[in-house]
Design a protein that fits this description.
- The protein is of the alpha+beta class and 174 residues long.
- It has two domains: 2-79, SP0830-like domains (Alpha-Beta Plaits, 2-Layer Sandwich), CATH 3.30.70; 84-173, Alpha-Beta Plaits.
- It is built from seven helices and eight strands.
- Strand 6 (123-127) and strand 7 form a beta hairpin.
- Helix 3 crosses helix 7.
- The chain is globular.
């Protein structure tokens, strides 16, 4: 049995797609997953499962069935998320304030190369096939290099979490 981290995109934001974490936990348990733990209201779930394929699609389908709306779901092994955290290229002070945009699938190399040429003042990013590491000098709220920007440019689904959230999820995964 492997331990996974599921990251739901766009729930409980601005009053849209409201989903209580207790209901989300129950959904995961009803799907047969074990050791289910949710963390904060933005749709973060640590769980264990025997199967390895199709987890994100299965979770997403069940959310749509129960609640009536589609939610992109990214599922990574806890080890993969721990590796992404450990390999953060930013110095420690920036790392603590960094954001990690996890990518559902590796983007095409030519798209990655094209995006690597883009720059905005006070915004730094490092792109790898699994993640975009981002540091915003002026905060996330005014950023040009946001989740929607990278999804459009890289043509992959993504969801963003800050360092503290990912570190906590890795800790919960034990």
């Amino acid at each position: 049995m492997k331990t996974y981290i599921a990251l739901l995109r766009g729930i409980n934001v601005g009053g849209h797609k409201k989903l209580k974490m207790a209901d989300l936990k129950l959904l995961f348990e009803d799907l047969g997953f074990q050791d289910v733990v949710t963390y904060i209201q933005s749709g973060n779930v640590v769980f264990s499962a025997k199967e390895t394929d199709g987890l994100a699609e299965r979770i997403s389908r069940e959310i749509e069935k129960r609640f009536g709306w589609q939610v992109p779901v990214l599922v990574k092994t806890a080890d993969a998320v721990a590796k992404i955290l450990a390999e953060c290229p930013f110095e420690e002070t920036k790392k603590a304030e960094a954001y990690f945009m996890l990518l559902a699938t590796p983007p095409k190399v030519e798209l990655m190369e094209s995006v690597a040429e883009i720059s905005y003042p006070n915004e730094e990013f490092v792109l790898i096939s699994e993640c975009v590491y981002i540091y915003f000098g002026n905060g996330y709220g005014n950023a040009k290099l946001n989740n929607n920007f990278f999804e459009k440019k890289l043509k992959v689904a993504a969801t963003t979490r800050n360092y503290r959230t990912l570190a906590k999820l890795v800790g919960l995964a034990g």
